[in-house]
Structures are given as C-alpha cells and as structure tokens.
C-alpha cells in the first residue's frame, strides 16, 4: 500500500460514529514549538469502547521507517498525549524483528484492509496542553464541512442531475421522433409496413454483412460465397414480399368487383 491507500484503509477501520477521524494533526498552533505532525489522530467517543486518544504514524516504505528510527523524539512530541500509539505500514516487511518500540502497536495490510500484528499497549499519557488541543480543534475545523454547505452542495447536485436528465430525455425524444418519421416515410414508399418478419431478416443480414466486413472468414472465396448466399436470401425475401403484395392487390380488386 502507498500512503493514500493506507489512509483510506484507516478511514474504513474507524468509519463509524464511535470515532473522530482527524488526519494531519500538529503538536501545537503558533510558533512556540518545533512543529511535528501526527499522520492521524483518532478519538474514541463511546464509553463502551473507551474514551481514548490514539495516534498513528504511517510508513509506506522501508527507508521512511528507518529515518523515523533515527529521530524517535519526533513521534514522542505527540505520542506523549496519546493513550495508544500505532505504526501503520504499507507492507509487513517494512518493520524487521526487534525494530518496533515496545510501547507501539503495529498495523499491517491484508488485502485492502489493515490488521493488528502487534497490539498497542495502554500508555501513561500526559495531560493535553492548550496548544495541542488548539491544534486538534483547528484541524477539525479545517476538515469539517458545515451543514449549510452540505445542503448547498446537495441542492446543486440535485439541480445539475435534473438538468442533465432533462437534456438527455429531450435529446433521445427528438432522436426517436426523427427515426419514427424516417421509418414512416420508408414504409410509405415501400407501400407496406415493416413488421417483425422484416426486422428479424434485417438483423440477420446485418450480422452477416458485418462478419464479411470484419474479415471473419478464412479467405476471399469464403467471403464471396457468403456474400452470394446473403444476396440470394435477400432477393428471395424480396420476391416473397412482392408475391404477397401482388396477391393482396388481386384480392382487393376481386373484392371491389363484388
């Protein structure tokens, strides 16, 4: 998994109302502290599951993890406020045996999900400072969409969808009306209506002509023979239709005489 895929998997793991999912949280606001950032902070909201603050460090490569090991104080600047601290990796082989700090948990990928390889122990966290609380709340404000804005987006989406559907309906209706008009003109010149028989035959001949055009036959002789057979069948169908028309005309004339 790359970093985006890891964050997506984490969002699926903590996707219900029992958690507040807050990515990219700094250790404080302003410039009083050396800025450090946790890739993710999750706050448990239900007493039944534990009101805990959990921090996550995401590593998608071995080199990124080795660099983290060289600077342990970076994570500690936020981990000290957390009840649990997790390392989340994009591949189980990123962390070698004995490298994981004893007070960290480890999440590794299984398919598109994340599973616990090492459970994160409960930590003795220090009280959250005003600066860290301000950093959390600022991040919440940045990623939160006000209900008013959500309603505006929903309204615009609905209007755009209705407008698009209306356009499609109008376009398809006009196209269908033109096709019906052409068909009626053709039937007028033909002197007969096109029933299911003719439609079935048209489909059959069309498929054969397409096969010939696409070169679905082994050689030129096969293609020509197929064209010959198709043409014979077309003439046979035309002759049959003409015969039926002639018989209808005779019947009509006999009916007029009587």
Describe it for me?
The chain has a 6-stranded mixed sheet, sandwiched between helices. The protein has 3 domains: 3-144, 3-Layer(aba) Sandwich (Trna Endonuclease, Chain: A, domain 1); 146-191; 192-258. β5 and β6 (113-118) form a beta hairpin. It is 55% helix and 16% strand. It has 258 residues and is α/β, with parallel strands linked by helices.
Question: Which terms summarize this structure?
Answer:
258 residues; alpha/beta; Trna Endonuclease, Chain: A, domain 1; 3 domains; six-stranded mixed β-sheet; 7 helices; 6 strands; 55% helix
Would you spell out the secondary-structure blueprint of this structure?
Blueprint: H1 3-13, E1 19-26, E2 37-44, E3 53-59, H2 62-70, H3 72-79, E4 84-89, E5 105-110, E6 113-118, H4 130-143, H5 147-190, H6 196-214, H7 220-257
Parallel strand pairs: 3-4, 4-5
Antiparallel strand pairs: 1-2, 2-3, 5-6
Helix pairs in contact: 6-7
